[in-house]
Each structure stands twice: as structure tokens, then as C-alpha cells.
């Protein structure tokens, strides 16, 4: 196999020349002379047994074989670069890459990261915010925080907190609707829905022993968005206890029925 592979430096010279369609430009990029780049490409063409460029007056063009080879070389060099960076990152003991879901990051994690940084001042903390699952075998992420049951391939999972939901709304909204003394009073309110959440309004109404008929209302894909809508006074949201804790403490939200809490599975 090694005898069949061309020297790496010839591939770098070819990739740069093909991308820029200029050996002079490739030489400047690679900090080589024009003659050195030209010799490396001729060495590569001799190794492959076909011309990769058409040498024209003051310019070069890729041959059919050169264009095909360029796509493969570009992909492989990119993969090598990414893997080298991944290996360097794994050996970097001063960097901690945390991946978090969008709502959890914005409403809970980000305001608290400064505590971790203060406790470990030599640690470089990088936060990646996404709701997609993390493949630890292909990413540079060290730890991921996600909602779920804990069964994740190639990962060790640990539950860090439990969560409940209960109705929350802004003080001005509560005043506007004349108060909420009983869950049945929610019939006069605009309900805010979090799309995809298993702890739904229907389940919460069942918890308090009431029929559920208000299926309409604003829907948001993320809990942080539904909470912000409630803060703006758009209606009553089912607030995740972890995500609304700070807003309740600061008085931006109120919980009219604090004892009627539905567990989040």
C-alpha cells in the first residue's frame, strides 16, 4: 500500500495549484518557489502516469483525470486535517467542550458557567448549543447535557436533576385576567404550548381533574421561547421548573398554582 501512494508534499502542491489554477499562487501559499511546485506536480504526474494539468500560455487547466483526482485529494486532505485537529483537541487537557440543548443553555447553563470558570481558571470552556444528539466518536465534545431517558450509545449517562412543569405567567397578565384563584380560571386565558414536550397542557389538566378543551394557542419549538412569550404577557405557559426558576425568583413570572406540578418524564 505505501508504495502505491504518492508523496504527501506532491498532493499539497497539486491541491493548491488545482484550487487556484496557478502554480505561482500555490507557491506563494505554500511558501515555496514556482520551480519547487512545478517539480512536485511533475513527480505526481509521473507517479500516476497521466498528466493532471494542461499547460497553456500564462495559465493552467485541469485535465479530466486532474479534475477527478482533485475532488478525491481535497476530500482526503480535509478529512486528515479534521482528524488531526480532533487528536490535538483530545490531548488538550485545558479545554472543556460542553454541548447543551438550546433552552437549557440559555435559561440555566449560560448564567452559571462563570462559576465553573472561576473555580477552574486554567480551563478553557467552550459551549456548543444544539438540540441534535452528539456522537462522541466523531466530535470534539467532552460532555453533553440533554433531556432524555439516558440510553445513549457510546456514552455514560448520569441524571443530574429532575424536573416538573406548572403554569406560569407574567404579573401584568395575571392582573389583566383578574387573577387565577382556581385551575378552572385558565379557561379564560391564552395558553402557550411547547411543541414536542411530553408534559402537555392536556396532562396537566388531567392532573388537577379538569377536562381539557383549549387545544388552540401559540406554540413554540423550544421551552425558552415559550417562557419568553409568557414574560411578554402573551398568556400562560407550562414552565419547566429548571428553566423558570430564575424568572420566578426575579419576579418576571408568577406561578399561580405552585402545588399542581406535573413530572417531566
Plain-language structure description:
The protein has 265 residues and is α/β, with parallel strands linked by helices. 41% of the residues lie in helices and 15% in strands. It is built from ten helices and ten strands. A five-stranded mixed β-sheet has the order 8-7-9-6-10. Strands 4-3-5 form a three-stranded parallel β-sheet. A two-stranded antiparallel sheet has the order 1-2. A hairpin with a 2-residue loop joins strand 1 and strand 2. Helix 1 crosses helix 4. The mean pLDDT is 89.
Please summarize what this structure is.
The chain is of the alpha/beta class.
Furnish the topology, listing elements before pairings:
Blueprint: H1 8-20, H2 23-30, H3 34-48, E1 53-56, E2 59-62, H4 64-90, E3 95-100, H5 102-109, H6 113-119, E4 124-129, E5 143-145, E6 164-168, H7 171-176, E7 191-194, H8 201-207, E8 219-220, H9 223-231, E9 236-240, H10 241-249, E10 262-263
Helix pairs in contact: 1-2, 1-3, 1-4, 2-3, 5-10
Q: Based on helices, strands and strand pairing, what is the structural class?
A: alpha/beta
**How would you spell out the order of helices and strands?**
HHHEEHEHHEEEHEHEHEHE
Q: Count the strands?
A: 10
Helix content: 40-55%
Task: Outline the biggest β-sheet.
Answer: 5 strands, mixed
> Which value, in Å, is the CA radius of gyration?
29 Å
Average pLDDT reading? 89
Q: What is the count of DSSP helices, taking H or I runs of 4+ residues? A: 10
Key traits:
265 residues; 15% strand; alpha/beta; 5-stranded mixed beta sheet; single chain; elongated; 3-stranded parallel beta sheet
Amino acid at each position: 500500500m505505501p508504495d502505491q501512494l504518492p508523496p504527501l508534499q506532491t498532493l499539497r502542491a497539486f491541491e493548491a495549484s488545482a484550487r487556484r489554477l496557478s502554480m505561482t499562487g500555490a507557491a506563494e501559499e505554500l511558501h515555496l518557489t514556482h520551480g519547487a511546485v512545478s517539480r512536485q506536480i511533475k513527480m505526481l504526474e509521473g507517479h500516476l502516469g497521466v498528466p493532471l494539468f494542461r499547460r497553456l500560455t500564462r495559465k493552467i487547466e485541469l485535465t479530466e483525470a486532474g479534475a477527478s483526482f482533485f475532488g478525491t485529494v481535497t476530500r482526503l486532505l480535509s478529512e486528515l486535517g479534521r482528524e488531526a485537529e480532533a487528536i490535538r483537541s483530545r490531548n488538550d487537557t485545558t479545554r472543556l467542550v460542553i454541548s447543551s440543548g438550546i433552552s437549557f443553555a440559555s435559561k440555566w447553563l449560560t448564567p452559571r458557567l462563570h462559576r465553573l470558570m472561576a473555580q477552574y481558571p486554567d480551563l478553557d470552556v467552550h459551549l456548543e448549543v444544539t438540540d441534535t444528539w452528539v456522537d462522541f466518536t466523531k466530535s470534539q465534545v467532552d460532555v453533553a447535557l440533554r433531556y432524555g431517558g439516558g440510553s445513549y450509545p457510546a456514552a455514560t449517562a448520569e441524571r443530574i436533576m429532575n424536573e416538573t412543569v406548572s403554569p406560569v405567567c407574567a404579573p401584568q397578565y395575571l392582573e389583566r385576567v383578574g387573577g387565577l384563584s382556581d385551575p378552572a380560571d385558565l379557561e379564560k386565558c391564552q395558553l402557550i404550548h411547547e411543541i414536542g414536550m411530553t408534559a402537555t397542557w392536556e396532562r396537566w389538566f388531567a392532573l388537577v381533574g379538569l377536562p381539557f378543551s383549549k387545544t388552540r394557542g401559540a406554540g413554540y419549538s423550544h421551552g425558552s421561547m415559550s417562557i419568553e412569550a409568557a414574560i411578554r404577557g402573551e398568556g400562560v405557559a407550562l414552565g419547566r421548573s429548571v428553566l423558570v426558576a430564575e424568572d420566578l425568583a426575579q419576579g418576571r413570572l408568577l406561578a399561580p398554582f405552585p402545588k399542581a406540578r406535573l413530572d417531566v418524564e
